[in-house]
Specification:
The protein is mainly alpha-helical and 175 residues long. 65% of the residues lie in helices and 3% in strands. The protein has eight helices and two strands, in the order H-H-E-H-H-H-E-H-H-H.
Length: 175
C-alpha cells in the first residue's frame, strides 16, 4: 500500500515530467522558441491562480474554532464541497479534513457568519505546508494588506500578542 507522502512525491515527479514533455512538444509542433514556451506556461499558471477560491475574512469572527476548523466548516457548509475536494484544494489528507470538520461541529453547531468584506483569503496560500494555517493567514494579511498586528488580531478574533508571535515565527520559517 502506498502512503500519502509517497503518492504526493510520485504525482509531483509525474507532473514535472509531463510539463517537460509538454514544453518540448509545444516547441517542436508549433515551432516556438524556449522563451515563448516559458511565457505561455507562466501565463497559463497565472490564469489558474486566478481561479482561487476566496475565503471571506468575516468567517473568523468566532471564538470556538481554530483557523483550520473555521476554513473546513466554511468550505463544507457554505460551498458544499466534499471532504475530498477540500483536502485537494488545501493540500491535506481527506481524513484530516473529516476530523477537523467534525471537531468544528462539536464546538459550534450553528453555521458561520459570512459577511461581505473587502478582504478575502485565496485558498492557494493555504496549500503550502511549510507554514501552519494561522501563520499563512497572518503572513498574507501582513504582507499583502500591510495591516497592523492589532488589525489582524481583530479580523481573526485572536490576541494581538499571539498574532505578533505567529507572524515572527512564520518569518523565521521563510528565511
Amino acid at each position: 500500500m502506498v502512503n500519502f507522502s509517497e503518492k504526493k512525491e510520485f504525482l509531483g515527479k509525474n507532473l514535472r515530467d509531463f510539463k517537460k514533455r509538454f514544453a518540448i512538444r509545444l516547441r517542436d509542433e508549433y515551432k516556438l522558441s524556449y522563451d515563448e514556451v516559458e511565457d505561455l506556461l507562466k501565463k497559463t499558471e497565472k490564469t489558474l491562480k486566478k481561479r482561487d477560491i476566496l475565503i471571506p475574512i468575516s468567517i473568523f469572527q468566532n471564538k470556538e474554532l481554530s483557523a483550520f476548523e473555521t476554513i473546513c466548516k466554511y468550505l463544507k457548509e457554505e460551498l458544499n464541497f466534499s471532504y475530498h475536494k477540500i483536502a485537494f484544494i488545501l493540500n491535506r489528507d481527506d481524513r484530516t479534513i473529516w476530523a477537523s470538520y467534525n471537531e468544528a461541529l462539536q464546538k459550534r453547531k450553528e453555521r458561520l457568519l459570512v459577511k461581505k468584506s473587502e478582504i478575502s483569503i485565496p485558498h492557494s496560500i493555504l496549500k503550502e505546508r511549510k507554514l501552519s494555517v494561522l501563520e499563512s493567514l497572518v503572513s498574507y494579511l501582513k504582507n499583502n494588506y500591510d495591516l497592523r498586528f492589532s488589525e489582524i488580531a481583530t479580523l481573526l478574533n485572536k490576541d494581538e500578542r499571539n498574532i505578533w508571535t505567529v507572524y515572527h515565527r512564520a518569518k523565521k520559517k521563510n528565511e
